[in-house]
Amino acid sequence: MTHAAMTGTASDVRPGAWTADPASCSLAFAVQNFRLRTVTGRIPLVGATVHVDPGGRPVSIRAELDAAGIDTGHPRRDQDLRGRRFLATDRWPGITFEADDIRPNETAWTVTGTLTVKDTRCPVQLDVAGFAIPADDAATPVDLHATGRLDRRSAGVTTAPAFVVGHLVSLSLAVRLRPPAAAPARTA
Does some domain include residue 40? Predict the structure, then answer.
């Protein structure tokens, strides 16, 4: 989680499992509809963990999303998205993301992982914006923002031609991570 654009050094980042606070997270998507407008929506985060090694570097991420909670603000559309033609949430209620390739770039981080939708695994790359970890308060949560794109067909969502529902889905994530608990002090 450290980078030149961030406050502090690797030793300032507490190693361990940083966990997302689902109530403080937002996972949004946008897709073209009938090539005339963009439909936006949200999908709830069930939970996420970022593992940080002893050197202060993130080494893996795992997140689970609630596919049945998808919300575009249009109940009939949401019911269709939850149905068997799209996400089949009665059979696959969750969507997972796993990443173990997390690399610093010029401004922040690039995260490459696998998204599993229904029983289909597809690659996803996210660009994580720079964020600061306060060196003076190791208990402070960290807010980060990520963006990415995915082709819904590679995720097994092949219903509807592109002129009805676009193939490319834009992703926008705002995630609040809580640091791992401090190790108990040793007594003499």
Answer: yes
Average pLDDT of the chain, as a whole number: 86
Q: What pLDDT digit, counting tens, does each position of 101-158 carry?
A: 999 877 789 999 999 999 999 999 999 986 766 666 767 899 999 999 999 989 888 8
CATH number for the domain harbouring residue 62 = 2.40.128.110
- Token look-up 């999908």 returns 43
Query: Which pLDDT belongs to residue 157?
Result: 87
State the total domains in the chain.
1
Residue 117 lies in a domain: yes
The verdict on residue 123 lying in a domain is yes
Q: What is the pTM of this model?
A: 0.85
Confirm whether 66 is domain-assigned. Answer: yes
State yes or no: pLDDT of 9 exceeds 50: no
Domain span at 41: 10-178
Match 């939708």 to its residue by tokens. 117
3-state secondary structure of 183: coil
- Burial code of 54-93, b = ≥16 C-beta within 10 A, e = fewer? eebbbebbbbbbbbbebebeeeebbebbbeeebbbbeebb
Amino acid 86 reads: F
